[in-house]
Amino acid sequence: MQKRLFGSRLWWAIPFGIAVFLSAGGCRRTKPPAVDAPRLNDKVMLRDITFYSHALNRDTVYRVIMPRQIGMGQRLPVVYLLHGGGGSYRDWSNYSDVGRLAEHGLILVMPEGDESYYTNAASRPEDRYEDFITTDLISDVEDRFPVTLGRAHRAIIGVSMGGFGAVKNALKHPGLFAFVGGLSSALDVPSRPFSIKRYGQWRHHRSIFGPWQSEQQHNNDPFALARTADAGAAPYLFLTCGDKEGLLVANRQFAPLLEQRHFRYEFHAVPGGHDWNQWNGQIGNCFDVLRQKLD
Questions:
Q1: N or C: which terminal CB in the chain sees fewer CB atoms within 10 Å?
Q2: pTM of the entire structure?
Q3: Average pLDDT over the chain, rounded to whole?
Q4: Cβ–Cβ under 8 Å, residues 99 and 65
Q5: How far apart are CA 89 and CA 112, in angstroms?
């Protein structure tokens, strides 16, 4: 009888263990070999920059698209573009038409964010991605390129994980950006409850945001930040989400909070799913509003 009982438990445990193993493997997905085919025209130029980040304590990379012709002494506004989970610094240039917008007097900067949610990880002191974005990256860009200095000439936009990073970091550092765009922003990530079906995702999120309901989680939760931030000092928020996305619920909950606290913002539920086809369709409108808000 004891042998039979052990066998039944063993066979129950094997598929569970396999599921946990596979799920855990999703914490740091290995990116497939990238086919780099930026969408550019002859009026813009592209440069990839590798530099040492003190926040990350290692070399990292970012991509820049800017007008090919810039007048002597001319300086331009800068827009930081954050990629989503599973993506890379190449995504914006490869999967959207944002490159053509640089010809109208903008410098576009696309950093490598890995799977960081652009946050200083709770359990990995070498992954201080918030400090990387808000300090190291901005400093290096302003040293190398003819960008106009100051908050009034600086914007940040992201998709999915990058939308979370853009909104969260703009609320935490209101003196840095005049405009923030979040396309399909994963705003609920820090407060997502435990799910055995997504054990690997949960473990990855906890490595970044700390234990459940910890101070680290609270300090990086866009909902908590929006409840306490100075709405008058915050940047203008441009938010969109596809009507076929699971993230629509969180975005629809976030918008009334901004309204209640008198933030300057707009939110659009738009047709489409969680993909570049949908995001590319929103970029034109996003940049139209951006130009109105930047000095």
A1: N
A2: 0.88
A3: 89
A4: yes
A5: 5
Least confident of 23-32, 187-196, 261-270, 272-281: 23-32
- What is the 3-state secondary structure of 258-289? HHHCCCCEEEEEECCCCCHHHHHHHHHHHHHH
pLDDT band at 15 (very low <50, low <70, confident <90, very high): very low
For the domain 39-293, what is the CATH code?
3.40.50.1820
Using DSSP's 3-state secondary structure scheme, residue 123 falls into coil
Structure tokens at 25: 């493997």
Position 229 pLDDT exceeds 80: yes
Place of tokens 């979370």: 164
- Output the CA angle 67-71-77, nearest 5 degrees: 55
Confidence of residue 5 (pLDDT cuts 50, 70, 90): very low
The runs of H, that is alpha helices, within the chain are 2-24, 91-95, 129-131, 138-144, 161-172, 199-209, 215-219, 222-228, 248-260, 276-293
Torsion of CA 183, 66, 116, 161, to 10 degrees: 10
